[in-house]
Every structure is written in structure tokens, then in C-alpha cells.
Amino acid sequence: ALGPCEASPNSRLWSDGGLTLCFYFTLVSSVLLTLSFLFGTFLCICYSRYGTAMEPKFIPRSRLYWLQVGLSVLLVLQALGWMVFRIARSGELPGYVVVYGCLSMLGWIWAVALLRLERRRVLVRDRTRGHSTVLLLYWAVAFAAENLAFVSWMSPQWWWTLETSDQQVSFAFWLVRYFSSGLLFLLGLKAPGLPRRPYMLLVNEDERDVEHGALLLGNSNENQSTWKDFGKKVRLLVPYMWPKGSVLLQLLVLLCLGMLGVERVINVFVPIYYRNIVNQLTDGSSWKTLATTVCVYGLLKFLQGGGAGASGFVSNMRSFLWIRVQQYTNRVVQVRLFAHLHSLSLRWHLGRRTGDVLRSIDRGTSSINSLLSYIVFSIFPTIADIVIAIVYFISNFNAWFGLIIFVCMTLYLTLTIVITEWRTKYRRDMNTQDNNAKSKAVDSLLNFETEFNVEELTVSEWKTNASLAFLNQTQNLIIGLGLLTGSLLCAYFVTEGKFQVGDYVLFGTYIIQLYTPLNWFGTYYRMIQNSFIDMESMFKLFTEEEEVKDDVNAGNLDYRQGQVEFENVFFSYMQGKEILKDVSFTVLPGQTVALVGQSGSGKSTIIRLLFRFYDVQGGCVKMDGQDISKVKQASLRAHIGVVPQDTVLFNDSIRHNIRYGRVTASDQEVEEAAIAADIHEKIITFPEGYETQVGERGLKLSGGEKQRVAIARTILKAPQIILLDEATSALDTQTERNIQASLAKVCANRTTIVVAHRLSTVIGADVILVLRDGQIVERGRHDELLAKGGLYSDMWLKQQQAQDSDSASDTETKDRKSEKLQPQTSTAGHKGH
User: Fold this and answer.
1) How high does pLDDT run on average in the chain?
2) Any idea where the ABC transporter domain is (predicted)?
3) Is 555 helix (H, G, I), strand (E, B) or coil?
4) What is the enclosing helix (H) or strand (E) of 732?
5) How far apart are CA 259 and CA 340, in angstroms?
6) Which residues sit opposite 555 in a β-bridge?
7) Using CA atoms, how far apart are residues 510 and 500, in angstroms rounded to an integer?
8) How far apart are alpha carbons 463 and 426 in whole angstroms?
9) What is the pLDDT of residues 435-488, one digit of tens each?
10) Which residues pair with 583 in a beta bridge?
11) Which pLDDT score is estimated for 213?
12) Cα 146 → chain centroid
């Protein structure tokens, strides 16, 4: 190990109160390479001979694992960087520097290889979990070696005095090695990139789960961290912060970010001017100079505010300007989400829970604004202030002050996050007990169960408050230790004449200024967690796949005559249960085709496929010879009008609901459509006429009135193709006859497909298709189908018999009423005599 040291004047092992740099670096690199190469090679042989490749589903996805890899690569780069620095600085390269750089790079590269090997392969007989002894020993020795440098604390050869630029750079390299190797050792104890349980045990459990039909390992996301995929979530937020298409709002965003930068600058200069005031008071400066400094300090405090910008002029102006951007975010998120939901298939909408969807939208929108506010205007500025403070104290004081601030801030943030996560369970338990106690109290205020529940609530509440007090005391302890350490060091330099009294004041002021926003860090952390949870539920809606999509090269429908063709169509809502089986028919331009059959035979499904709520699984649907799956949905639906079986109305006026068929229609056209739908006379009898509110989902109207509004809406749209899905199912006989006459006028010379349950409504259809079990079993006109004596004829006879029975029942009911009246009259007359 002494060979490379010959070029150094300090060839002895101990010199000037410390180890020689030559001996230290040669020893450390040699030991580390020996550990990684010799023992690592043995480990590789064992893995190749006795190990097996892990299945990808058992390998945890971990950001901490990639942090391990990144830290190892950083240590490789720092060894290379140290050699480059020595060459650039002195123009020569000592032998021990070459030895250390080459051996360290080889050792850490080999460590990365072992780390990746353990993640991909596993020893079959290994019943333990975590990293191998080789890697743990390597990281432990690397961290211990960096601590060995403290032995040379008093040696002027080392970097501890920080008097020269070479020592300062060497100290920076040492900090990188120290914290990287220490963090690697701590992460190694947790082994984030490896399964938490023995691999063979996971395999056996997985096989049993498959046999019993259970979920595979790792499918549950209930305990998933809200910080998972943090970068992806932040990238999702960015488009909503930058308002595309509005130059004014974009300038507002840039102005707000600029004011955020101004606040950071002000935070630096406030303590500086406070120091200048103290120094000028102590050194006897003139009143003019002192007054100017005090005025500048007052102006800076006005701009900053009383709490590090919390309520200053700049902060208030930024919040005021950000309101417009926040409104833009609300609007864009809701519009995009509703547009996406409207593009989803009918299958999704039939299975949705409207309350959950609306709650996710409301919470998600507010959570995006909260996240943008907390992250952009609280978290990032706080971190920026810490970095600026470290740089400022290193450059204007010395590196020890920067190290003190770095260590204190790191401990403060780390412990705040850890303790906040730890005490969350107590808060959750207290909420649960509180709900239980109040529920019991409603049932019985004095029984034993309520008292017992209150006792549990008291314990949970005590744990919550005690853990909060513990968090506050921990934060206070770190602040106090950091302030004490820095103040003692600063006071020492003042007594040595290296610093002025104002420097001592500056340090204390700056530290307190940094800690002020950090006091809210725990709150910010919890709020960001909650916002992430709310945002995830909303973005899950964005990730819902559109079942019916337009092709990339889809064009508009070239409508010519309105001929509709179904060619060998197969369709099923769920796997294994076909609704339509090889259905083929043609609707000529201007024809009226009726679809009849029992419930579940596939009548309404044909309507939905033509409107392209779903795509067929076999065959194709054509309009004027064009496959409708190859054209844009909007252009297809623009030519189709639908009167559904279940009418959907908005909670608005009748006029608005009819006008929805064509939003550009005039009031006169709306009323003409209502007349055609036989609802105009009814509307004008309402106190508010066409301005009458229909209520939620049209509940203020009867079923027949709702149906006629839907028919008026279709009439107003005046489409070339009309689909009537049980359009008169909710109407009485007289109204149905009136509607049929109106529909006959509307459907004249238009391609019409009618789904009907009452066969009497489709007697005049050009073609009647009879469906059974998803197949067309009969087709023809009404008279032809009756003459065949098949399924249609049976359905017709049954409906006629049911209608005759209903008529007889009505007649019998009337006779009974008259009979009840007649005896009463006779008896009365008899008594009178």
C-alpha cells in the first residue's frame, strides 16, 4: 500500500497529528475493492449455481432501490471527479490519487452489479430476507472508512480547517462520500428492492392463491403510499397550471413565479440589513447612513411581512393575481373530465355510481388547487430558502455554518415526516372512536356501552394529543440544538475578531426565519397527502378507457340517402353470453322498419349499435355503404335522432329541454315542435308555460309528458334517420294515437327504425323484423306475418286477448260502480215511504 505514496512528501503513516492522505486513501480503496471483488465473485458463483431467476411479479417496485443505484453511481462519479480536480488544480496526479480513483470506481461498479444481481436472482434455499452479508459489509466498511477521517481532525494536511480552496473542495467531496455511503448502509438494512418475505414462501402462497381463486400478490393498492409515482402526479398537475391559449393568464403565471423569486431574494436581504443596522450602531456610523439602512430594512419587512412572507405585500399581491389562474384550473379540469366521461361507452355509464363520480370530481378539483398552492408556494420556496441559506453561509461565513444548517434542516424535515406518518394511526383511531361514541349516544345516552366507548375515545384522544406534543417538542429540540451550535460557533468567531456583532445577529435572525415556515411543514405534509388521495380518485376517471374510439384516420360520414345495413352482426355485453347472433338486414332509404320480440331478444341493442354506443364484435354496420366504425362518432350521430324508452331531462325549463335537440332553434320553432309532439296545449296550461321547471330528471312531469318532450326534441332536431325505442310506451291509448299521427308526419321520407312492444303501433311499417334469442326469425309486413301463423301471429293474438280482457275489465268495473249506486238509491226511497 506504500508504493503509490512515494510521490508524496508525507510517506509515513502518521504525520502532523493525523493519518497521511496517501495511506488513508490507498487503504480505503484497497479494502473496499477486496471486499467487493473477492467476496462478490464468490457470491456471484453461488447465485449462478444455486440460485434461480425471480418472477417479475414478486420483485417490488421501489424508488428507494433506484436511490441505492443512484448513490452508488454518484460515488463512482465522485472518484472520477476527484482525479479530474487534482489534474486541473495542480497539473500533476499523485500516485495515491490514481490508486484511489481506479480502485474506488471498480469497487462501486462491482457493488452496483451485485445489487442488481440480488434483485433479479435468489438463492432457493435462502430463508432470510434482505441484502447479502457481502453488500451490507461493503456499505458498512465504506461508511466506517469515511468516519475514520475524524481521527485526523487536528492535522493541517486534511480539509477540516477549510482555509484554502483545495481544502474546501476536498471537504465537499468528503461530504458526498459520507452521506452517500451512510444512506446506502441505512437503505441496505431495509432492502427496498427485494421481497419482504422469503422468495419460496411467496411462490408457495401464490400457488395456493391460484388454486383457490384468490387475488395474486401485489394486486391490492389499499396500503399504497400516496407519494408513489410522485413525479408522474406532478407532471399531471403542470398542464393545469399553464393556461394554454390565454396570453394574459400565462403572463400572470410568469408574474406570480417572478414574485415568488423576489420573495426569496427579500428573505436573504432582511437579515443582512438587520446585521448592518447592528454593526452601524456599534461602530458609530453617521445618522444619515443609519437612517437610510433602517428605511431600507423597513421597506424590506413591509414587502416580506411579519412571518417570512406569510402576509407581506409581495405575498398578498401574488395570491391576488393567482386567483384568475386558480379559476382557470377549476374550469379546465371540470370541462376536460366531463368531456372524457361523455366519451365513455354506455356500458360504463350504466355501471357508474353518480354520487361517487361527482364527489371525486369536486374533491379532485379542489385538491389540484391545494396541491398547486402547497407545492408551488409553500414546499418549493421553503426548500429553496434552505438551499440559498446553505450557499450563503458557506460563501460568506464558512462551510461549518452551511453544514450546521444542512444537518438541522435534514433532521427537522425527516423527523417531521416520520413522526407525522407514525401519529396518523392515532388520529384515524380517534376519529373512528369518536364516530362510534356519537352513534352509541344517539341510541342510548346512559348505557354502559356508551361509557365504555367514551373511555376508548379518551385514550385515543390522549394518544393523538400526546403524539402531537411529542412532534412539537422534537421540532423544538432540533431548532434549539441548531441555534445553540451555530450561535456558539458564531460567538467564538466574534471573540476571535473574525466576525462582527452583526454577524451573530444575522445568524440568529436567519435561522429563525428559516424555521418559521418549517413549523407548518407537518401540516403541509398532511394536506398534500390528503390532496394526493383525492386527486388519485379523480385521475382514475381520466384513466378510464374509451371503449368506443374514433380511428386515427376516421373521416366524417358522407350521408347520401340514409340506407342502413347490418351484415352478419355478432355482439355480447359480457363474455360468453351473446345478445345478437349473425343478424343481417337492410333498411332502404325512407323505409320504416319495426323491431319486435320478447324482452331481452336484442331489439334495443340494435338501436344502440347503430347509434354506436358500442362496437360490434363480429360483422359490421353500414350507413350508405360506409362502415360506421370507420367514421367519426359526432358526424354519425349528427344525422340520427333518438327517442329513447327512458327519457332523460335536465333540471331546467321545458323550453330548454326541447331546445336541446337543436340549441340554435328559435322560440317559435320550439313551440312548433311541441305542437307536433302533442304537448303544446298541455304546456300552456302550466302557470309558467314553457318556462316551467321540470325538476330533477323531469320528476315534475308525468311519464307521458316526459316522453312527448323527448319526441318534440327529436322533431326539432329534424334528423335524416330516426330511431324510436319504445317511444310511446309510457302513453295512454288516446295520446298514443295522437303521437303516432305526429310521428308519421315526422318520419315521412326518412329512414326510421322502430322498437315496439305494442304491435298495434307498427302495423303500417314497411318491414317488421321479429327477433328471438338474438336472431331474426321472421320478417315481412303485418299481413304477411299474420298469414304465416308463426311467432308474430302468436304475439298478436296474445296482445289482442289481453286488450279485450282489459276492455271487459273496464266495463265490469263501470257496471259495479253503477250497481253500488242503484241499491243505495232504492233503499233510501223505501225508508222514505
Assistant:
1) 76
2) 564-798
3) strand
4) none
5) 35
6) 631
7) 16
8) 6
9) 565 555 555 444 444 444 555 556 666 777 777 788 778 888 888 888 888 888
10) 569
11) 37
12) 42
780, 768 contact by CB (below 8 A): yes
To 5 degrees, how large is the angle CA 524–CA 529–CA 534?
125
Containing 595, the helix (H) or strand (E) segment is strand 592-597
Q: Which three cell numbers stand for residue 411?
A: 433532521
Q: How far apart are CA 20 and CA 2, in angstroms?
A: 11
Helix, strand, coil % (nearest 5) of the chain? 65, 10, 25
Q: Positive or negative CA dihedral for 648, 652, 655, 661?
A: negative
- pLDDT tens for each residue of 266-310: 888 888 888 888 888 888 788 888 899 899 988 888 888 765 445
Cell match 447465485: residue? 47
Q: Where do we find the cell 321547471?
A: 693
Those residues with Cβ within 8 angstroms of residue 60's Cβ, 6 or more apart along the chain or in another chain: 192, 193, 194, 195, 196
Closest by CA position to 69, among listed 147, 180, 174, 172: 180
Helix extents (H) in 397-519: 399-443, 448-495, 501-518
Is the pTM higher than 0.70? The answer reads no
> Cα torsion for 498, 504, 509, 515, to the nearest 10°?
80
- Mean per-residue pLDDT, 639-643: 81
pLDDT at position 772: 87
Rounded to a whole number of angstroms, the distance between the first and last alpha carbons of the chain is 142
Name all domains of the chain by residue range, CATH numbers in brackets: 3-210 (no CATH), 246-332 (no CATH), 383-539 (1.20.1560.10), 649-710 (no CATH)
How do residues 755-782 score in pLDDT, each as one tens digit? Answer: 887 787 788 888 899 988 888 888 888 8
What's the rounded Cα separation, in Å, for the pair 773 and 762? Answer: 21
Percent of the chain at pLDDT exceeding 90? 1
Are the C-beta atoms of 81 and 10 separated by less than 8 Å? Answer: no
Please, are residues 557 and 636 in contact by the beta-carbon 8 Å criterion? Answer: yes
pLDDT in tens, 727-743: 655 556 665 666 666 66
Tell me if 579 sits within 8 A of 571, measured CB to CB. Answer: yes
Q: What is the DSSP string of 532-550?
A: HHHHHHHHHHHTSPPSS--
Residue 751 has, within 13 A of its CA and on its CB side, a CA count of: 18
Query: 375-414: per-residue pLDDT in tens?
Result: 778 778 888 888 888 888 888 888 888 888 888 888 888 8
Q: Residue 598: phi, psi to the nearest 5?
A: -70, 165
Q: At 45, which amino acid appears?
A: I
Averaged pLDDT for residues 83-104: 79
User: Which residues touch 433 (CB under 8 Å, ≥6 apart)?
Assistant: 453, 456, 457, 460
* 8 Å CB contact between 26 and 96: yes
**Minimal CA–CA distance to 695: which of 685, 706, 684, 682?**
706
Other beta carbons within 10 angstroms of residue 659's beta carbon come to 22
d(CA 412, CA 257): 27
Distance CA 803, CA 730 (A): 16
Query: Rg of the Cα trace of the chain?
Result: 40
Q: CA-to-CA distance for 657 and 703, rounded, in angstroms?
A: 15
For 35-70, how does the pLDDT look when each residue is reduced to its tens digit (9 = 90+)?
A: 777 777 888 888 777 777 777 777 888 888 888 899
What pLDDT shows up at residue 832? Answer: 38
- Whether the CB-CB separation of 314 and 259 falls below 8 Å is answered with yes
pLDDT at 3: 41
Residue 700's closest CA among 738, 625, 649, 747?
Answer: 649
Q: What is the pLDDT of residue 295?
A: 92
